[in-house]
Amino acid sequence: MDILKNNISQIEKFLKHHEEFSKGQKLKFIFVISKELIFKIINEWTPYDYTFKVVEEKRYFMKLEMTREVKRIVRRKIQGIVFLFKIIPTDLYVFFTFENQDFIEKVLLRYLENYNSEISKIHLNSNQIESFLIDLEKEYKAEINTEILVSYKRLFYSDFKKKKERESKIIYTNEPFRDSFLKAKKDSTWIDKINFSVENSENLLFKGYISREAIFKCNLSFNDFFNFILNRIIKIGEKKIKLFGNKSRLENKGAIKPIVFNFFAEVLRKESYPQLISVISKYPKSSYSIYHGNPYLHMGIVDYNDGSSYDLWITEPNKLIIIPQLKATLNSLTRFSEFISTNFTDGEITEKVL
Fold this sequence. Notes:
Elements: H1 2-15, E1 27-33, H2 38-44, E2 50-58, E3 61-71, E4 75-87, E5 92-97, H3 101-114, E6 120-121, H4 126-140, E7 143-154, E8 166-176, H5 177-186, E9 190-199, E10 204-211, E11 215-218, H6 222-244, E12 259-263, H7 273-281, E13 286-292, E14 297-303, E15 308-316, E16 319-324, H8 330-343, E17 347-351
Antiparallel strand pairs: 1-5, 1-6, 1-11, 2-3, 3-4, 4-5, 7-8, 7-9, 9-10, 10-11, 12-16, 12-17, 13-14, 14-15, 15-16
Helix pairs in contact: 1-6, 6-8
């Protein structure tokens, strides 16, 4: 696609001016969705514990210095440079940085997650991460091996409050990625992130990383890897916009436009309702009500970030039905779905046909 080639060409041009790009540093990139211009959002509002300095700005590009003062036992400032691009002509944006994980987690991700209801991250499930790797292996005609795999498993108990609700696993290995995903499926775990190597019969081509939060990293072959990722992320992003956008009853003259969270396992039996309710009770900046709890579960959620609200229904052991109310924004529905997927268990989201 000429549009994609133009985006990649412009991005490469700007990044090459950054000295670390030529040093083979591992480049990290994060994709997000916004119906608003993120450049305008950044210029108009800065969170109280942040300092922004716009180093360079063009129509669809910004180089930004972000600083956050972290107030723990010892106060410290975390500072770094990010590059922000709008992927024309979509509502997708990509942040690039060469900074370390401390900056990504405590500065960039915290800003995206906590400070703006206009920005949604593109969340991936285990199947989508696996599909990326399957296609990547075909694209490079190479072998992909797992180096580090982080996964989670939901634990169910009759008295769960006395025990941990989920189990995390960190595996250091050097096995074909397909074996890693097969083991995870057999163990009913979902993949959170994976470090991997791509090599052919002669050489190590590059090392990469993919996470559920649509964070990607590579240390070599940036152009090819980014081109590969971008093509697929655009499709995922546009599907998400279609799935979560225009779902409020106000936008549909009172009509109901429900969506369904289809879990990969039958985890929604009556005895597991308390655990789901416990997870929902921890959803940030929200309140919930329980209208009915036996034999089916019916709840209401209000998202204080932007005033969205929706009802939740469980009538089948593997389906959570989300019914948007008068106001239900794309960003709110995306955040809530990501929260359930990350903190309860994994699944696919689809529209429900009435």
